[in-house]
């Protein structure tokens, strides 16, 4: 019976013996904090995205990366920052933590990505930055977004939490903007437990981000307590405690080495889902555009009670009863009471994101899934959607 099957955890990471052995080595080395493994992870990640190591800074989350990038971008307090309502709350919170004002621009119905026309319509004399989110791993229309930013003198900070492998017209996500912010959270495409990376075009701004991410101190601990002799530090800014540990980088080093292998596995699962759901009355993800690389981070379907046997929440509950974990990416941020109370936002003001948010479900897409797991998900989706 389905009830006796193990619970299929949504977003379960694929952790191998290499990651485990590296964490053990790190612990035996006695150096757990920010040190040589973080430095190696930074240079490996920089090489993967085709930049020099002086263009990246590892931090302890993508939220931290977004916050520090906003501060390092040096925007006047109260400046308006345009972003998408179809994102995780961290995108909006980071804007607010930097003393800036979030402004939402609705998304494209087919892709879930911020609509460049809506960005243009949201620009005011106070607009200073755009934060596009490459939703589900699909690149935003960066040609148009870069053109809008150039025309209006705006900073771009890309939220690349879903987009480690993503490319648009030959350029990796994270390299269009002044900053690109990546996540290595447990459900993301490369995992360090908690972790993030800032990629920046301007070396001086990345150097500043690095200082901001460690209390505003001018030299990090590894350099102070290493074998080169004690070095005094100077506090040059009021910074944050956002540094990545070697324990985290130990996982990330081996996850990054498997990034292509895991991407190929998710691509194969994605193709199998596309094929298996083609005849169902649900909306499946739009196929990737030509000359782009999709990150295949989230396989989202839209379940609508008018066409399916259940509504979205009924679908989530029925999948859970079949012991399959799902996710919702995302309820429009304008659905949440804090932003409604603070900014007077109403979900109806961004109707496309509202509709997607109320109908969407994300299916398991982990590289560690077996073919049997994939077929189990397919069988459950077909049964629930068709009301069999
Ligand atoms: C996961 C996520 C974040 C936050 O990442 P953390 O590393 O957990 O801080 C930000 N934006 C989006 C779109 C995300 O999916």
Would you kindly provide a written description of the structure presented here, covering whatever features stand out?
This protein is of the alpha/beta class. The chain has helices spanning 17-29, 36-48, 62-72, 89-97, 116-122, 142-152, 203-212, 221-225, 246-257, 259-277, 312-321, 337-343, 351-359, 371-386; strands at residues 56-59, 80-83, 101-104, 127-131, 155-159, 167-168, 171-172, 179-183, 196-200, 292-293, 299-302, 360-363. It folds into 2 domains: 17-257, Aspartate Aminotransferase, domain 2, CATH 3.40.640.10; 259-386, Aspartate Aminotransferase, domain 1. The chain is built from 14 helices and 12 strands. The longest helix has 19 residues, at 259-277.
Q: What's the topology here?
A:
Layout: H1 17-29, H2 36-48, E1 56-59, H3 62-72, E2 80-83, H4 89-97, E3 101-104, H5 116-122, E4 127-131, H6 142-152, E5 155-159, E6 167-168, E7 171-172, E8 179-183, E9 196-200, H7 203-212, H8 221-225, H9 246-257, H10 259-277, E10 292-293, E11 299-302, H11 312-321, H12 337-343, H13 351-359, E12 360-363, H14 371-386
Parallel strand pairs: 2-3, 2-4, 4-5, 5-8
Antiparallel strand pairs: 1-9, 6-7, 6-10, 8-9, 11-12
Helix pairs in contact: 1-9, 2-9, 3-4, 3-7, 10-14
């Amino acid at each position: 019976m389905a009830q006796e099957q193990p619970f299929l955890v949504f977003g379960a990471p694929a952790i191998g013996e290499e990651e485990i052995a590296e964490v053990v080595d790190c612990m035996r080395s006695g150096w757990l904090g920010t040190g040589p493994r973080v430095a190696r992870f930074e240079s490996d990640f920089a090489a993967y995205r085709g930049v020099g190591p002086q263009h990246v800074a590892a931090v302890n989350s993508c939220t931290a990366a977004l916050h520090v990038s906003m501060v390092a971008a040096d925007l006047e307090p109260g400046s308006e920052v345009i972003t998408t309502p179809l994102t995780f709350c961290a995108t909006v919170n980071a804007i607010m933590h930097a003393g800036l004002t979030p402004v939402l621009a609705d998304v494209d119905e087919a892709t879930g990505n911020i609509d460049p026309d809506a960005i243009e319509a949201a620009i005011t004399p106070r607009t200073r930055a755009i934060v596009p989110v490459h939703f589900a791993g699909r690149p935003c229309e960066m040609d148009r977004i870069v053109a809008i930013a150039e025309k209006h003198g705006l900073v771009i900070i890309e939220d690349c939490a879903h987009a480690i492998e993503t490319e648009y017209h030959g350029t990796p996500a994270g390299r269009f903007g002044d900053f690109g912010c990546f996540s290595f959270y447990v459900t993301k495409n490369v995992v360090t437990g908690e972790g993030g990376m800032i990629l920046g075009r301007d070396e001086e701004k990345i150097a500043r981000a690095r200082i901001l991410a460690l209390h505003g101190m001018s030299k990090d601990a590894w350099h102070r307590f290493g074998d080169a002799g004690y070095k005094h530090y100077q506090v040059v800014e009021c910074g944050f405690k956002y540094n990545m540990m070697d324990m985290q980088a130990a996982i990330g080093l081996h996850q990054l080495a498997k990034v292509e292998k895991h991407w190929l596995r998710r691509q194969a699962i994605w193709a199998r889902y596309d094929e298996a759901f083609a005849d169902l009355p649900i909306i499946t993800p739009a196929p990737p555009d030509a000359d782009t690389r999709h990150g295949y981070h989230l396989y989202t379907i839209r379940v609508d009670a008018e066409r399916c046997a259940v509504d979205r929440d009924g679908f989530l509950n029925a999948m859970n009863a079949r012991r399959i974990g799902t996710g919702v990416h995302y309820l429009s941020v304008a659905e949440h009471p804090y932003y409604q109370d603070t900014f007077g936002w109403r979900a109806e003001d961004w109707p496309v994101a509202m509709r997607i948010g109320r109908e969407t479900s994300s299916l398991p897409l982990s590289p560690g899934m077996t073919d049997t797991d994939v077929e189990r998900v397919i069988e459950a989706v077909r049964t629930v959607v068709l009301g069999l």
